[in-house]
Amino acid sequence: MNNTKPIRVNGRNNVLKKKLLPLLLTLALLIGLLPSIGALQTVSAADTTAPSGGNYFNFPNEQYSASNARITTNQRVTLNGTINNVVGNSVSYSVYNITLNGSTEKVVNKIENQDDNITLNSNAITVTNLELFPGLNKITFKGTQGTSSVTESIYIEYRNSPMLYDLQATIRGSVYNILEDQTTVIQSALSQGKTKEDIAITGKAPNATKVAVTVNGRSYEYSVASSSDYSFTASPISVNAGKNVITIKVYNNSQVVETTREIAFYNGTVSFFDLQLTHDSDGVSVDNGGELSTTTNGSSLFLSGKAIIPIQNDGTKFKPDVTDMANIAAQFAYIPYGNTSVPFTAANITSIEPSVTDITTTTKFITVNFKLDLGASSGYSYDTAYKFQLQGYNVNEAQSQMSDSKTFYLRDNTKAYIYDVNYLSGYTSSMADNALQLEALEGTDIEGASIYSLPMGVEVLIGNYSSLGDYTNLIQMVNADGSANGNVTTKQAVHTQVVSRNVNGVQQSFLRVFLEISKLPTTGTQTLYFKLKNSTAVKSAQITLLYGPFVKYTDMYDGMSIDFDTTMAPDKGGITYMMGQLGNFAGQFQNVANPAELVYTNTGAPAKPQTVFFYVNNVEIPLKPDGTDNSKFSIDTTDANVLGTVFGLLNLTGENSFKIVFRTGKNNFESTVKVTIVPTNLPLIPAPNTDGIYPYSESRKAPLANDPNFKRQATIFTTKEASMNVYGTFDFIDLGSNYSTVSGRITDLGGSINNYILNVSSPDLVDTITWTLSNEFTLTSKGNPISGDNTVNKGLAVSGIEVFYDVDGQYFYFILKNQQLPKDGSSMVYNFTVFNSGEAGPRATNRLEVDPVAIPYTILSPVTEERKLNQNFVDVIISSPGADSILINGIEAQKVTYLDYSQDSVTPVPIEAYKVRVSNLKPNKVSPISLVITSATDKMTDQFNVDYEPANIPGAQFAQVMASSHKVFDGMLNLKFAKNSKLVRSDYNSTANNQTQVYSGNEILFGIANPTDGVLNRYEYRTQPADYWSENSIGKYYLDEFFTDRFIKASPLFWIDAGQADDDSTKAYDPITYGLNPYTYPVVQGDSDQQFFKRYDNGRELIPTAPGELTLSYDSSIAQSAGTVVTVFRYDPYNNIWENIGGVVDEKKHTIDVPFTKFGYYVVGKLTYGFNDINDHPYAREAMEAIYAKGLMNATDPTGIFGADQYVTRGEFARMIVRALDLPLNYEGTKHFIDVPVDSIINPNALYDYRYIETAARAGFVRGTRPETFEPKSNLTRQDAAVILAKALNLKLETDATKAKASLAKVFKDAGNANYYAVPSIVAIQKKGFIQGSLIDPSNPKGGSVFEPTAKLLRSDAAIIIGKVMADMKKLPKIYAN
């Protein structure tokens, strides 16, 4: 008994007995001293001489020859075997998917050197869940024996085709195995007497994804998955009493396996099934009509089958007597059509099931197998229908029961015959010449089929087709007696197909002929007769063409409404317009079995009775058929009398009825369409189906019918507004839907256009406003001017009113702008009148009354739509003519001049107003804004509400006075400032005026901007200055196009702004002490008019006096590797560039920290792809990717090459150090070096620029190569990199030269090659592990290393160095590098 526990060795279990360990070590040593047999010993399993078992890896159940590969249907297998003299922890395996050409193997797929799923126990080996490729697999095992490697291969063929087994049928809880080679009888006591029953079919279908079950013309589909062990349940499946043929298909991508099974549902009545007609060696099923192809001779025809009959037991005997075959035979009879009944005899009974010995008192029925001799085949004729029934006695019902009528035919096996005809339900006439579409159609039993439309498609299967020769025009439609039927029109497709069908378990070939039937003699139930040319046999099928002719008009439809100008005379376009709207009554009859029955007139020779009649408002109007298609019709558009008659019959001011009748001797069809003609020339104010006439706030960009500032009480509007606009609609003529039509209509009206008048009068108007159709108006669609020409009668505008014509609704509307309400509170009344036949003709009038309060005022901002806010502040601007002061939320409002762009977007109208910013609104709460307006001795108090509902989406804003810490947007953004931080100009070192100003108490604006264009507020409900948004496209271009394609935004786009410094170009002290919207525009005079992209070098930039710390949250779905690929980008609006500023990632919190030195846009970016020469690098990929992602290095060619194998320059290394240490840029004033160009425009993709070199020089860790010379483009040596790095990191340097040289000599063999000034730095950097040397002999690590101090430093090595430095500073995670 072995009690030694297995131990894990290299991921596998080995058992080692401690007592055997010394012996094993000795044995291994002896083996190692033996002469080498070879580096690799291999047994070729493809060789036919390969052993039946392995020499080194023995798997008893596997095959070592490709030609004898074990076959499996499982994708994963487990192998059990033993190893022979092979070191256990050296064993691995590879799986090769191969093909064979003779004995030559070709590998098409592979997985190599696997060992995770190998378990060893002594010399026993188990490989669990080894995954196979579909097809032939060669599994090669490899291990060490002595000093040699040995391999051996086994072969397994994985067949992934779908399979099907364990089929069972369940009926009312009773389960039956579905037999493969015979009919399965199913029954349940609960199903007795039912003609149909629902059952379930279950089974397993390995490697399948779908199972389709078809029974009795219905198909059911079910999914299959490995998660359910490939089991499926098809339920409910409806079966009929008696025999049911069930087809089951299993699918696996491109593979399909199909099987057919037969189930007999026994419902307590006598049932016959599996009826077979045989003659000599020929046979055919007769269950659904049998056609036996044979040769008649003197031998007999036989009919065999099965019958289920109930039995009874009275306790002593069975009825019928199951032990007496004669008694059983007496229960049955064969009844040929037209002949006498033939009783069965005992000789006809071949067996019963269950057998006599297995029948018990609980047995309820038996299955009787029988075979009848129908006489010599020579007594039967070919192509003749022989009908019969079978009779059986039901002891439970005490009566005989008959089978359905059965039919069989004998066919001459030397001649072709029609085997079957099927209905192709998906057929359309467009498929006639498309072989692929025809072959894809699946036929269903045509017998009893309901046909919904013509043409219809059928398939005819022809047996013995090889005798035909020519396949054209094979099928003829005939009458029952075989004579030609000219009332059925067919067309055979040119394409035919040879198909295989299962006939009595034997696959037989048939010719598949596709037939289109486009005409039938009638509708309803009818029998079609198909005959093969040169044959007398007729195949019949009863179908039902569902009667239901249908008329489809080209343009007209029921419920149609036509607008019509009743002043339009018939000869002036009236008839043409109306007939065009009605489509000339053109249409088509559909689903008519015989189009020849459509007779539109009884004229012609020979005359036929008219069957189609058309009525306009109950008056018959003749139709004429289309010349090429009798089913198509219209009125005769060439007959002016017909057109005039129709127009005269129309009710031009109401409903019209159009009826078409199709009447034959058997059927009658009527279709009535009602069309309403709506007169459009009566004057109306307001126009129907519009919002009418109403006042609305002057601040609104578009009219609003229910403006809350104007409350309607009955017919009077009340308001607190000081001014308003008035909107109204009217209608008196339809002009058309485009500029050309409208202009033409105006021209056609001539002088009568002055009869179309709109008058506006009011006691408060100096003069009545009169506008006519001869004055200017604008064509609009959905409230906007139509594209292209849109102004009619241009230059003839009427002062005080703007008129528009809506081309969609075909009505006019007007706007009265800037209507000043009486200051004393008097009502303002308007009367509107419209005419369409001059002022003496018909008119329509409307009245508008607006009643203002005593001290009117208008809230210019926020407008009503802006009072549900996503910001914690609101700018309130109030206009109140005559007001002396206004308190807004208790704050004295500042008097300002509001700029109203709604009337003129180029030169806004100035409005005297009062402004206050209300801050610190409470979130998720309605905040009342109180108003106190004082005018002389009068005082009015009021309030309105705003609702701050914060949501962290684009548009969110949060304003807060600058403090030491800001946490906004639910912690998505955290900004901390150093203690006592203030705001100063960015160029505070300049000698210009006012550069030393200091600002405090500024309100910082935080916003979430749109990630594409950076918009924070789109001002949807206000009118902006002209060209405002076209200018703003520049901002979108900067933000979107300049953002690198190699990164995606992984956080919202944040905007942070603290205002601007005093404007030196003005005499006033005018700093902006609150953060500005990036797309600002002047709302009041004096506001900034500079969008963010216009701030470039404007001299007003503010920065904090000391760097702060900004923490941003990023997408929490980003994986743990974010530390090296996530960075922060800042868009600097004063330099118009995106800058990658790096950042330190907290992968657990999904945040990133960066120094905060400038205001602007900030967003977290994630590297999506780098460069090929990074990806392909043998040892520095991770380091270069991280350093590039953090913005410390740029690509030498941003379009596609990083430059991994190029040398780093002095300028670039200086930039890398400055960026790695997060040093604030310090470059204003006199510069250190004259050979470093000062760029006026910063290129963010440059490898370096003067700012970084100057910052590094001022920090003291770079020096010139000569006085005032830096040589930024010179390649950096390894020793100079060490010197720069040691200084930048303030490392402690050895000052004793002797000690320094000795320390360096201990580490590097080439220490003497280092320049004296670099020795201490190299020693310090080596101790930190930032720069390593190279082995002199890689095969002998003890041979020592060299530093190569004067060698140039590769950019890839520079990335590794900086990566190690940043990891040491906790700014990056440790990076894997070789």
Automatic annotation (TrEMBL):
Residues 1167-1231, 1236-1299, 1305-1376 form the SLH domain. Pfam families: SLH (PF00395). InterPro entries: SLH_dom (IPR001119). It comes from the Bacteria. This is S-layer homology domain-containing protein.
